Amino acid sequence: MSYHYDILLKNGLVVDPVTNREEIADIAIAGGKIVEIMPGLSAEKAQEAFDLKGHMVMPGIVDLHAHASAWLGGRFGHKMMAQVGVTTALDMSGPIDSVLDIASEYGVGMNIACIQYVRPGHTVRDTNPGEKELETLLEQCLTQGGLGFKMLGGHYPLTPEATARAIEIVNKNKAYVAFHAGSLNKGSNIEGFLEAVELAQGNSLHMAHINSYCRGSVRPCLVETEEAIAALEKNPNIRSEAYLSPMNGTSAKCSGGTPESLVTHKCLNTGGFEATEAGLEAAILAGWAQINLEKGGEVVLAIGQEALEYWRSKGTETTVSFSVNPPEPRLRLAVAKRQSGEFVVDCIGTDGGGIPRNVIAEMGLSLVRLQALTLKEFVQKISCTPARILGLKNKGHFTLGADADITVLDLERQRAYMSLVNGKVIMYKGYVCGKGGNVIATAQGEAAVRAKGLNPVIVDLADSKFYQR
Length: 469
Ligand SMILES: [Zn+2]
What we know:
Layout: E1 5-16, E2 21-30, E3 33-38, E4 46-51, E5 55-59, E6 61-67, H1 77-83, E7 86-91, H2 96-106, E8 108-118, H3 131-143, E9 148-151, H4 160-172, E10 176-179, H5 190-200, E11 205-207, H6 221-234, E12 238-243, E13 250-251, E14 254-255, E15 258-259, H7 262-270, H8 277-286, E16 290-295, E17 298-302, H9 304-313, E18 319-321, H10 327-335, E19 347-349, E20 352-353, H11 360-369, H12 375-389, E21 406-410, E22 415-421, E23 424-428, E24 431-432, E25 436-441, H13 446-451, E26 455-458
Parallel strand pairs: 1-4, 1-5, 6-7, 6-20, 7-8, 8-9, 8-25, 9-10, 10-11, 11-12, 12-19, 25-26
Antiparallel strand pairs: 1-2, 2-3, 5-21, 13-18, 14-15, 16-17, 16-18, 21-22, 22-23, 23-24
Helix pairs in contact: 3-4, 4-5, 5-6, 6-10, 8-9
């Protein structure tokens, strides 16, 4: 007689808002799917059984804002995400080729989706790309295995007209579009955010990291936060996430004596430094600018002489983090609700991946401990809702027959303990053991994903929560 189940997860606190569960039960997995959930399933029927007493078992964490490309995040992003229990992530900048290459070489069994940056001088000619140019770029992006566009306005702005045009074109094609607010008119702040909401003109749009427009750079930070909340309430076409870490992440690359990114300029000014290459150097030595440094198979934050030497050795082309997110907006944005009872900000993301701030479990569980979120609400924001936004019908819930994408959390230590993707363990007790990668793409990108040796997960965004309100 053969085993009934491949894996049995015993005695965990199973939490799933979709099936309205919060109870101690066993979860049986066979053929990569969830086949049974109830207490008292026999370990003898399973090839492998884990006793998860004292742990919480939830649908796999979906981080709707991560970075794992050579341009941003780097090769260790997958491993760093798996270590903290993330099973699915959306890379929020591309380039798509690089995201797929890294998934293929450094993948640890996770699901990854990717959108392509719309960046003057890189993917578009200048700051005012026309309809034809944007359509061609979108076509290429989908064929390469991407889901749509990321507009990097805050860092590398377009004209407001081109920004609106890009959002419109993506919507016509029912692809995905995310926006880091900012244009040639407005910066990466609350004014830029309010402009972005206008530029969407009722189209579906993912507004990235809402907390980053509420840092108090125009008005007091909580005033900005309430303005952002009011705008999101009024515009149900906008999907959003906010993150919990105090740290941001931006480019440290300089050319002609100044940092290229306008966000980096602002962060330097905030810390009392000049927005020049010399100012950035001083900020690194003073500890205000923390260089993202690859070391020992992960990315760490570094300051002082070591950081300065690393930054110079890379010709300034590194990521840099500043502690610019005040706590009050982060807390308010994580918990704010609409009158309907739904969250104003759909998801808790990280803007992490290879940028070391993957704190969904660590800091999110602090919100649960504070009783600012219930466990079910927490799971809603970090798994159910983001899975639906990406059109992943078989993920983000524990319905029988769903994909066995599972995250196990140690509630006491506020850490991820174990995670599985399609019924395969990819992380156990912090050790990452998964291999390869699954890429969430449209039918148009299936061949490109396979050509990279990766496994396609095909979604229809027209039928996702990105478009369905
Ligand atoms: Zn980002």
